Amino acid sequence: EDVETPFTVFASLPTPPEHRFFLVREWHDEWLDGSREIADWIRGGQIKYRETIAEGIESAPAAFRGLLSGKNFGKQLVRVAG
Questions:
Q1: Which of 14, 23, 35, 51: CA 20 to 30 A from 29?
Q2: 33 C-beta neighbours (distance < 10 Å), count
Q3: pLDDT at 9 over 90
Q4: 13: nearest Cα among 54, 68, 71
Q5: pLDDT (tens digit, 9 = 90+) per residue, 16-68?
Q6: What is residue 16's predicted lDDT score, i.e. its pLDDT?
Q7: What is the dihedral of CA 1, 17, 36, 45, to 10 degrees?
Q8: How many alpha carbons fall within 13 Å on the CB side of residue 22?
């Protein structure tokens, strides 16, 4: 039986998105220390990040479609409250 998964859906796109996984459970013992260190790096400016923010719940479907087609940069968020 063919099972449709995110991997098969992404692979079927004309330009499949690049994806990488980080499983927290693999690093559970180090997670809290690592999170603190990364937060310090962000506050100190050693790490900079960008994210795409869509405004309003009515924008969520288009934001999701854009996410799947690579139109976002970084994390795709939808702001639903001020």
A1: 51
A2: 10
A3: no
A4: 68
A5: 877 666 666 777 888 889 889 999 999 999 998 889 999 999 999 999 999 88
A6: 81
A7: 180
A8: 5
Residue 73 pairs in a beta bridge with none
- Structural contact between residues 79 and 53, judged by C-beta atoms closer than 8 angstroms: yes
Identify the sign of the CA torsion 36, 67, 48, 20.
Answer: positive
Contact criterion met (CB below 8 Å) for 13 and 68: yes
Cβ-contact 44, 21 below 8 angstroms: no
* Secondary structure (3-state) at 32: helix
* Residue type at position 10: F
d(CA 52, CA 56): 13
Q: What is the pTM of this model?
A: 0.50
